[in-house]
Every structure is written in C-alpha cells, then in structure tokens.
Amino acid sequence: MDQTANQLQDQFQQRIDLEQKIEPKDWMPEKYRQTLIRQISQHAHSEIIGMLPEGNWITRAPSLKRKAILLAKVQDEAGHGLYLYSAAETLGISRDEMYEQLHSGKAKYSSIFNYPTLSWADMGAIGWLVDGAAIMNQVPLCRTSFGPYARAMVRVCKEESFHQRQGFECLLQLSKGSEVQRQMCQDAINRWWWPSLMMFGPKDDESPNSKLSMQWKIKRFTNDELRQKFVDMIAEQIKLLNMVLPDPELTWNEQTKHYDYGAINWEEFKQVIQGNGPCNKERLEARKKAWADGAWVRDAAIAHATKQAKRKAAAQTYSAKETE
Amino acid sequence: MLQHTVQTCIHSDTQLKYLLQLADNALILSHRNSQWCGHGPILEQDIALTNIALDQLGQARNLYQYAALLLTEKTGITTTEDQLAYLRDTGEFKNCLLAELPNGDWGQTVMRNFLISSYQFFLYQELQYSNDGQLKAIADKSIKEITYHVRWSADWVVRLGDGTAESHARMVQALELLWAYTGEMLEPCDYELPFIAKQSSFIKAAWEAKIAAVLAEANLIHPTNDWMQSGGKKGIHTEHFGYLLAEMQFLQRAYPGLEW
Known about the structure:
The structure holds two protein chains of two kinds.
Chain A: H1 3-17, H2 30-55, H3 64-89, H4 95-104, H5 121-138, H6 147-175, H7 179-198, H8 210-215, H9 223-241, E1 251-253, E2 258-260, H10 266-276, H11 280-293, H12 295-323
Antiparallel strand pairs in A: 1-2
Helix pairs in contact in A: 2-3, 3-6, 5-6, 5-7, 5-9
Chain B: H1 2-34, H2 43-75, H3 81-86, H4 97-100, H5 106-127, H6 133-161, H7 165-179, H8 183-186, H9 193-196, H10 200-217, H11 239-248, H12 250-254
Helix pairs in contact in B: 1-2, 2-6, 5-6, 5-7, 5-10
C-alpha cells in the first residue's frame, strides 16, 4: 500500500473513531464497500424473501382486523427492502444486479425464512421472536458508520418494533383463548425459538466477518452479546403468555445476571444456509417466478416511457417550428 | 338524525343488502389483490397494489361494521363484521362476478381494477350525497382512496396497452375476458334501486366515457360484445368463488366461535 493509500486509510479510520458518518461519495476501503454491499443486500433480500412465509397467511387471516394488520406488515417489509436496496445502490451496485445475485444463489438471506408457516400462531411467533431478534440486530445499526444504511435503519426499526408488539399481542390473544389456540401458540413458539436464536449468526469465535466489521463500526455488538440480550428479554416476556420456551436448560444465572441456555444445533444452521432447509427451494423459486413473470411488465413500462419521451420531443420540435 | 332513523326503518332489509353488496365487492377485490403481495413484477408496484388492497379492506370493514350495527339493532342479537365476512356462504355474498374472478396475469389484474375502480368512483361520488349520514361518511372517506385506485390502474392500462407487442396482446386478451362481466356492475338490481335509481344512468354514462377515453389512450379497441354475465349480486357466483371463501373462512369454520 503506498503512502497516499495509507493516509486515506488512516483518515477513514479516524473519522469512524470520531463517530462521523461515511457517505457514499467519501473515500472508503474497497473491503468496507464490499462488506456493506454484502450486508445491506443480504438484509434487503431477507425483507423480500421474508414477505413469503407471512404472505402465506394473508388470505387465511382469521378476522378482518388481523388481515389488515398482516397485510400492512408484509407491505412494510417490502418497504424495508426498498430502502435497503436504495441504500446499497449508493455503493455502486444496481438493484437488478442484487436480484441476480439472489436468484443465482450467490447472495444469502436470513435463514429463518426457510422455515414453513404452518398455523395462524406462526404469524404471532414471527412477529414476536423473528422481528424481536431482528430488532436486537438492527437497533445498533441505526448508529452504523455508513450514513445511508444508518438512516434507513432508523425507519426500519420503528416499524419492526411495532411489528414485534403486534406479534406478541397476537400470541397473547391465543394464549387467553381455547385449549386449541393455546396449543397452536405453544407449537409455534416451539418451532420458531431455536431458528430465532440462530438469526444472530455463528458463535463469536466462528464468525469470520465480525472483527473488521467491529473495527469499522458496521457492527457494534458481537453475535453472542446480541443473542444473550434476546434470550434475556424473551425469557421474561414469555411469562406473560403462560407458555414455555422449548429449552430445558434455560435457567436464570444469579452470578452472570443472565439466562443460561442450551446448545444451539449449529449443524441444522449450516444445513439451512447451504440450501437444505425445509423451504429454501420454494422461497427462491417463488422470487424467481415473480421476477420472470414480471419481465413483460417491466419491458412494457420501459417501452411506453420511451414512446412517451419521443412523442414529447416531437411535439416540442413541432411547436418550436410553429413559433418560428 | 330523525330522517336517518326513519329511512333505516323503512328500508332496513334493502339497506342491509345494499350495504353488504358494497362491502362484499370491496372485500373480495381486496382479497384478490392481496394475493399479489410478495409476488408483484416490480417492488414499488407490489407495495402500491398491496396499498390498494388495504384501502379496499378498510372500505369493506367500514361497510360491514355499519351493516352489523343495523342487524344488531334490528334483531337484538349482536352481530360483528367478522360474522358477515366469515360466516356467510357463497349464496349470501352479493359481490359482482368481476370482483371474484382469478387474478390472471398482472395485465388482467390492473384491467379488472381499472374497470371496477372507475365504477366505484362514479358510484361513491353519488353516495357522498346520500341522506344516510353513515353511508355518506364512508363514501367521503372512500372516494379519496378510489380516486387514486383509478389513476393508478388507468396508468397501467395505458402503459401496458401502449407498451410492447406482447403487453398489448395480453391487454387485448384481458379486456376480452373481463368485458363480459362489466354489465353486472352497471345494471342496478332490486335492492340497489332505492339508493341509485335516479343516478344509475348517469353513473353508467360516466363510466362508459371514462373507459372509452382510457382504452383509446392505451390503443385498445373498445369491445363490441354486449352479452353480459351476471348473477353475483343475487348470490349466483362463479366456480372460483367457493374456493376463495373456503380459503378465506378456513379458521373461522374450523374453530367456530373463537376470538383471534
């Protein structure tokens, strides 16, 4: 690295250390740019793929109020995808390129969305646990060093915390309901608990990207720190539902002032990431199909806009000649 | 207020059917539009169509809640919006056939929305002058939303009709399929007459003029087929409708009487 590059690198790190935001036109190390593109686009893809498991229940929501809540929630996720794709575009990648990476399997998305939604209670469990875990990850991102990402996250977090409360309220209603509803509620918690813990990513000593991300203040807490915070929060909230978490080892540790919890099945985590989760193929196929089926619509929109521009230009030429 | 009460008594059955017909159209169209959520051709348009589905669901809820109130007053038995949406069978739903047809492709979906929203626009414009205060209030709120639905769907009809050869061909096909279902909206049935007898010919003329103008801009030839399918308003639906309700009403039917 020559001296100028070293200076730039130092200045960059100084700015980060001073908590100044890095903006799209500022100099940044190529690795910082690529890390952010990878992280933001993964996040955007997770929002878009995340629409599918919940979208699965829109037409079957059990009341008009629940239908409106769910529809608005899934729409919010589309909105999050939109802000995040836009934030990633400021780093020099197009939305189409990001879609291409998703469809080809090159880009990843949050593994949790490869699990199926089998009952109405899953809508509550996703809101409470999955959005709850997402918020733990995302609140620190409101202060992340890259400006557009941080600003997008402020809005995303407001909506996500609303979703989490809606999810909890959905489960609370079920927990106060009939025996069948209570079973539905417990079953959903059983299925979504462990995948939610996996959302924080591998254990700190096995997280390849963490160190540099912490130095650049893209990340501010480690995977394990955030996971612990989440466990501590949920272990208390579940008491209000009169339900249990499916972990016999979950116990309050008076010394650490945290909840201890059982071992996560990391083999399952790896398998789901590698494409072997219960719904990996369906989720990706659904997105690829939507994209392929929509090609003629996008082509037509561009063709029409081009025709309109030509007509406008022709009309202006004609009108200019008339004036002469 | 007195006038409102009197009119409610005189027309209670008719009024109820009329409100249900408006509500059913809004709910069923919302249901079809909501099926696109997560599967749209362009992210921004996925959001737009979901927004429209949410508006329509909101309109349906306002109307069902009002109908439920009238039913409760009339029978003395508490009725809710959810009972009206989830516990009636196909024969009791009064929506037009056009609203319940499957979505087809994006072109067919935007064409259907354009045909129905344009009708709703002129209808709700009239309902803003209703002497039924509640219905007027619902119309006042809904018209703002419907104005956007018409603009959005008309823009898409033009864009696709005047886009590529493929999009044009698809729009010709969509129009051909849907046209035979438009007449039902425009011809008032017995329970609609007390509410829009005087206005129906104006609504029809305004709708026809709007459709003709947009189709012309979209380079689409106005259909000449005037044989119309009907039945929805009287509870005679298409084969598709039973599946729609089976899906929508599943939880309420499988676990009756529970709060969700």
